[in-house]
Amino acid sequence: MIEISKLTKTYEKSSRALKDVSLTIDDGEFVFITGRSGSGKSTLLRILLKEVEPTSGRVVVNDMDLGRMPRRYVPKYRRQLGVVFQDFRLLKDRNVYENVAFAQRVIGVSGRKIRESVPEMLRMVGLSSKYKSFPHQLSGGEQQRVAIARALINRPAILLADEPTGNLDPHNAMEIMGLLEEINRQGTTVVVVTHSSEIVNMMRKRVITIQRGIVVGDEKESGYWYED
Ligand SMILES: Nc1ncnc2c1ncn2[C@@H]1O[C@H](COP(=O)(O)OP(=O)(O)OP(=O)(O)O)[C@@H](O)[C@H]1O
User: Fold this and answer.
1) Of all protein residues, whose CA lies closest to atom 28 belonging to ligand 1?
2) Is ipTM > 0.90 here?
3) β-pairing, 214-222 with 2-10?
4) How far is the CA of 131 from the centre of ligand 1 (A)?
5) Which SUPFAM superfamilies does the protein's record reference (predicted)?
6) Which residues make beta-bridge pairs with 3?
7) What separation in Å is there between the alpha carbon of 118 and the centre of ligand 1?
8) Hey, which residues does 189 pair with through a beta bridge?
9) Is 204 helix (H, G, I), strand (E, B) or coil?
10) Mind listing the pLDDT tens digit for each residue in 124-138?
11) Which residues sit with their C-beta closer than 6 Å to ligand 1?
12) I need a surface site. Which of 50, 66, 121, 187 has the fewest CB within 10 A?
């Protein structure tokens, strides 16, 4: 569960990126956070990841108050969140299998467990046959599938996706959204930041709209889109 109350972020020498944002995302929800460029979406994600500190307000993720979290606990906290980015961020010199396995190796998962869980995850994202391929041999959609497999391999309760379809053509974008929907169906909370109105309108999920740092809309199962 994500509980945000009265969250404000003002960057130095700049206007407010977020102003008095309060919202709750329950376990198992699928939520879009949308808004124009510069509205504050990435700032919100970065605060959730504890990469950016709020100016004021409270953020509690899975019962952990981020404002009270000791610095040494942050890496462990971040591992409880799966994160996917627009530009995939795969290791270019490792194949598909190794890209996914790496996320387990760094936290000391046993070789036996890795050999069991990576193929299972690659099956889930539909990439079993490409496990030996390198990122440059894959389409954008396939690369994003690898990134999703990597984000989920340690079974996080929450998946945060920052413009996950931003580099994909409409067909691949729809496939990735279908995969995120399936992941959500299996119990993971999914939070997708996007400014694609097509995707938001097609999916009919909860849509939180941010405009100049303020939440101006929060609609359940909606195709709501902000006015320019
Ligand atoms: N590190 C920073 N230092 C100063 N100002 C920043 C910083 N990061 C973001 N901002 C400002 O905060 C505001 C919100 O930016 P943010 O990146 O959160 O928006 P966004 O909705 O994610 O935009 P986009 O869709 O283009 O990624 C903008 O005015 C931006 O210029």
Assistant:
1) 38
2) yes
3) unpaired
4) 36
5) P-loop containing nucleoside triphosphate hydrolases
6) 24, 60
7) 35
8) 158
9) coil
10) 999 999 999 999 999
11) 11, 14-15, 17, 35, 37-43, 195
12) 187
